[in-house]
Amino acid sequence: MIINENIDRGKAFDWGRISEDYAKFRDIYPDEFYERIIKLGLCVKGQKVLDLGTGTGVLPRNMNKYGAEFIGADISENQIDQARRLSAEAGLDIEYVVASAETADFPDNSFDVITACQCFMYFDKAVALPKIHKMLKNGGHFCVLFMAWLPFESEIAKRSEELVLKYNPHWSAHSMQRYVMGEQEWSKELFTPENAITYDLPVTFTRETWHGRMKACRGIGASSLSAQEIAAWEKEHIEYVNNLPETFDILHFASILNLRKK
């Protein structure tokens, strides 16, 4: 369980509550998302990569084909269980450990690349960043990745957000707009920015997968809402998506911040 006063007004959330749906509905990044990482020379053959906040192993599982050796770490044992299951079913030999960014314990100079996909906002930077710096090899890279839908450019996303807020008004991940991460104060002492990229990409959903994606968000499935509240949201959201086309695109933006260890 995570409690952060800067997220959802301090309301507790736990990704382990929704791990089965997360495994089924959150593996949604298009090929372009991974290819952009590869074009920066990251997560390629010959590199050893630690994926912090790996969740169900989405990044290691999808980037395994590019040849890097991945280790995935996540604070949630349920998420790691799903990561191991999905990797085994796909015939992938990927190591996973239950550990947060703050408690991951690997020797200094272990990794060419450390990634944090869709999770860096949860890190205690004062603790995690020096640890990340030490675990990276000299000249290694720390890559922060993020992707989100654009509700002001998608009526479907906007309406779904409204329904989440109806049941969980504390949810703070709504009304997202594009931004370039760029150099940050927290990075200046430890890292040099090499790339800061933001780009648009459409993500295709069916009625079922969009509903599943919304249920597996922090505002519903991972939240501390009761089972009755989640069921009420689900009933109303299913009624909404059943009136949508069977297949549709939701415009997202993605951001990459590629930092080199000083």
What can you tell me about this protein's structure?
- The mean pLDDT is 95.
- The chain is an alpha/beta fold and 262 residues long.
- Strands 3-2-1-4-5-7-6 form a 7-stranded mixed sheet.
- It has 8 helices and 7 strands, in the order ααβαβαββαβαβααβ.
- Helix 1 (19-25) runs antiparallel to helix 7.
- It starts with 18 loop residues before the first helix and ends with a strand.
- Helix 4 (77-89) links the parallel strand 2 and strand 3 (95-98).
- It has helices spanning 19-25, 31-39, 58-63, 77-89, 125-135, 155-167, 207-215, 227-241, and strands at 48-52, 69-74, 95-98, 111-117, 136-149, 191-206, 247-261.
- The longest helix is centred in the C-terminal third of the chain and has 15 residues, at 227-241.
Task: State the main characteristics.
262 residues, alpha/beta, seven-stranded mixed sheet, 8 helices
Quick structural summary:
This protein has 262 residues and is α/β, with parallel strands linked by helices.
Secondary-structure topology with pairs:
Layout: H1 19-25, H2 31-39, E1 48-52, H3 58-63, E2 69-74, H4 77-89, E3 95-98, E4 111-117, H5 125-135, E5 136-149, H6 155-167, E6 191-206, H7 207-215, H8 227-241, E7 247-261
Parallel strand pairs: 1-2, 1-4, 2-3, 4-5
Antiparallel strand pairs: 5-7, 6-7
Helix pairs in contact: 1-4, 1-7, 6-8, 7-8
Radius of gyration: 18 Å
Mean of the pLDDT scores?
95
Low-confidence runs: none
Count every beta strand, where a strand is a DSSP E run of 2 or more residues: 7
Strand order of the largest sheet: 3-2-1-4-5-7-6
Largest pleated sheet: 7 strands, mixed
> Considering DSSP H and I runs of 4 or more, what fraction of the residues is helical?
25-40%
Instruction: List SSEs in N-to-C order.
Output: HHEHEHEEHEHEHHE
Number of helices: 8
The oligomeric status of these chains comes to single chain
Cα distance spanning the termini: 33 Å
